[in-house]
Amino acid sequence: MTEDNNENVNEEGVRRRDFINVAAVSFAGVGGAAVLYPLITQMAPSADVLALASIEVDVSALEPGQAIKTIFRKQPLFIRNLTPEEIEEANAVDMASLREPQTLAERTAPGHENILVTMGVCTHLGCVPLGAAQGEIKGEFDGYFCPCHGSHYDTAGRIRKGPAPTNLEVPEIEFLSDTVIKVG
Q1: Are residues 7 and 93 in the same domain?
Q2: What is the CATH number of the domain that holds 58?
Q3: What is the pTM assigned to this prediction?
Q4: 11-49 pLDDT, tens per residue?
Q5: Whole domain around residue 62: which residue ranges?
Q6: Are residues 60 and 148 in the same domain?
Q7: CA–CA distances in Å: residue 101 to residues 45, 94, 95, 145
Q8: How far apart are CA 28 and CA 175, in angstroms?
Q9: Are 120 and 84 in contact (CB under 8 A)?
């Protein structure tokens, strides 16, 4: 063989090797995507959860001082119509005394400071606090009381005493009218 023939063979060999490498990496990439796709899609919310992605609640029958319980994304949701006295009491709290400082205005929709919407799940270990229904124990701060481990929340759903680390969660809300709330 001449020197020119050896160069052609080497160039063709390199080209074949490059093609095989590119093909192998491409095949591995497609195979990896085929394996990862079902793993990732199975972590997506199920259809029944997506159907409850938002709910509308009519609060027209809710009198001042009353609260209702409903279900949102398979968890309890508390909607409370605060009395003027409860609003005044919540606004009078020293923010420095709170574990997670939030004003009542930060926890309610603008112009609707009397309607407080919170998830009905204690932030300690996920129990359902008492205080939303008539006659239930409301705790030392007239809000909510978690009977599992003794967390006390005030009328604004802010943690005041007990092991719960944070305030009751306030979901995203929007007033569609003066009496209809869209949650989620």
Answers
A1: no
A2: 2.102.10.10
A3: 0.69
A4: 556 687 888 888 889 999 899 889 888 888 888 877 776
A5: 49-183
A6: yes
A7: 32, 9, 5, 19
A8: 51
A9: no
